[in-house]
Design a protein that fits this description.
Length: about 325
């Protein structure tokens, strides 16, 4: 019988783990043609998340866990999980029950129908502010314009991935991961399932605007070099304007002389050009920083403890 792994990254989710397990278990118990196992990745939680997972694991043989040495972020936690599965398919789910387990049977039947990546697409997002929704909409529009691959809008990490996709994702060892983009990059036949996203059942969201902006910049700089082209064009355009203005000044001085020293225009130009230079340097810095971090070839994560003995692709570089 084939096995399907439910992969759950958890960071400070003590209030939700048990109810998550029992809720999802109810659904998976109705599907008898597969074995199900749960893999919880404790992403360096500061509360009793790991303790609760271990307690649950003592009572249930279908639970596996990995505990990371610190908080590495959800993207890396998912990678750690994927590195350690050997099943035929993986379903990635959030621990807060925002991803409805009721979609699992449908995901599995689409997978059986020949799709490699069955993802859930949100129709409505309840419990999120207007600002978050509209900024995310604008962001994805820009990201899709800038990058060669198309990144799906209103799609989270809740999806079923075939073994093939997992192998492909694990072979990409970049540490600053933008998993949403990687899902598109690997290709394979994809299928969407539509659903309404509920608000969190327990605990609170781990995202704040600082983290989201970080992820947003990672998304653009991982999948597009267009900002570098834009900065070259910007530099070219500003130089052209400066050159035209210089000709104008020279002719004006030759014809009318120079009655008043041009202090205001001088300051305006210096500030403008200085600003453009800083922007361009900043953009280059983003890419350089990425290269710097990746060139260190550090392992993406470190494990403190786990009950898995088949460390299949562990810490493969
Ligand atoms: N998560 C994680 N590491 C982090 C932040 C979040 O493993 O650094 C997990 C978290 O425990 C949850 C999932 O990622 O299972 C989604 O997080 P959250 O619900 O906070 O995100 P949102 O649903 O608000 O986008
Ligand atoms: Mg959530």
């Amino acid at each position: 019988m084939k096995t399907i792994t439910i992969l759950v990254p958890c960071y400070n989710e003590k209030s939700g783990i048990e109810i998550f397990y029992s809720t999802v278990k109810k659904v998976t118990d109705t599907i008898s043609r597969y074995n199900f196992e749960f893999l919880f990745v404790d992403d360096g939680s500061k509360d009793e998340t790991l303790h609760i997972i271990k307690k649950l694991q003592h009572k249930n043989r279908d639970i596996f866990y990995i505990s990371l040495s610190r908080n590495f972020g959800k993207e890396i936690a998912m990678l750690a999980g994927m590195d350690h599965v050997s099943s035929s398919a993986v379903i990635i789910m959030d621990a807060d029950l925002q991803d409805p387990p009721s979609l699992i049977p449908q995901m599995i039947s689409e997978w059986e129908g020949g799709y490699f990546d069955v993802y859930a697409k949100r129709l409505h997002r309840s419990g999120e502010t207007w600002l978050k929704k509209s900024s995310s909409k604008i962001y994805y529009r820009i990201l899709n314009k800038l990058s060669d691959i198309s990144i799906l809008v209103d799609v989270g990490d809740f999806r079923l991935l075939d073994k093939k996709c997992i192998e492909a994702l694990c072979s990409m060892r970049e540490c600053q991961r933008y998993t949403k983009g990687l899902f598109s990059w690997i290709g394979y036949k994809k299928k969407a399932i539509l659903y309404d996203r509920d608000s969190r059942k327990t605990g609170k969201t781990k995202w704040n605007y600082r983290k989201l902006i970080h992820l947003a910049i990672d998304g653009i700089t991982s999948f597009s070099t267009v900002p570098l082209h834009i900065s070259s064009w910007l530099g070219f355009f500003v130089s052209l304007c400066a050159f035209i203005y210089m000709l104008y000044i020279i002719f004006k001085t030759l014809i009318h002389g120079d009655p008043v020293p041009g202090y205001p225009s001088l300051i305006a130009i210096i500030l403008f050009v200085g600003g453009v230079q800083l922007i361009v340097l900043g953009i280059m810095g983003e890419y350089l920083g990425k290269m710097f971090n990746e060139s260190k070839h550090r392992p993406a994560y470190l494990i403190v403890e786990s009950n898995i003995d088949h460390f299949s692709r562990v810490n493969k570089m």
